Amino acid sequence: MGRVAAATSKLYVNEHDLSGRSNAFELAVDNNLIPVTAFGDSAEEFVEALHGGMLNQNSFFDGASGNIDANIWDEIGAASPANVGMYIGHAATQGNAGYEFKARPNDEARPLQMAGAVLLNVKWTATGAIVRGTVMNNAAVTTSGVVSGSAHNLGVTSGNTRFVALLRVVAFSGTTMTVDIEQSSDNGGGDAYALISGMQQVITAVGSWRLSTVAATETWKRVKITAFTGTSITLMVTCGIELGT
Predict the structure, then answer these.
(1) Boundaries of domain holding 102
(2) In terms of domains, do 158 and 113 share one?
(3) Are 180 and 223 in contact (CB under 8 A)?
(4) Tens digits of per-residue pLDDT, 132-159?
(5) Would you say the C-alpha torsion 240, 242, 243, 245 has a positive or negative sign?
(6) How many domains does the chain have?
């Protein structure tokens, strides 16, 4: 793969797609190396502590109801950190990679000047480990059953490795939907897909949810809708492993 243009990148905060008002962002991952060099060492020694991260977001202000200013403002003092996702060089399409983490806004700036656009710039501080995941689905769901094209070979995970699924519903025309993340060792060839324990979500409105498990998982994962009442629900699912686990 060659160089990647940033033009089609995506930025999400919870269920909100902020890409239409953002034109720059930067993710910095802190490896948090602690120096532990002793007198008898022949070179510097370090150990890795907890990983952290910071996202700098540059956007254009839009104060209309339900738009970016309201979306960001709601995160000040929120009871829980936001689910922040960034997808670089593509439109968060099925099979592509992205980064997901829980974060709080450390700083919000709204600079403005004559003959210039009003801006909305945010510094997000991660409150937990970052996930590099694969987009399993990012399209409308209109019925129950296995989501087309959602099966991916993500590799096995061993015990104590945290496997994460980030679910977003950005449009909801319906009553309820139940989403399962399933696993199989051979894509259902001889080993039938089954629910990963604890990775089921009942959804009744737009929103975002982070599911995880530290139990061992099998190679293949997919998305299945086990209950659906509605017309069309736009569902985004990203699955991956927490950094450092």
Answers:
(1) 10-33+44-128
(2) no
(3) yes
(4) 999 999 999 999 999 999 999 999 999 8
(5) negative
(6) 2
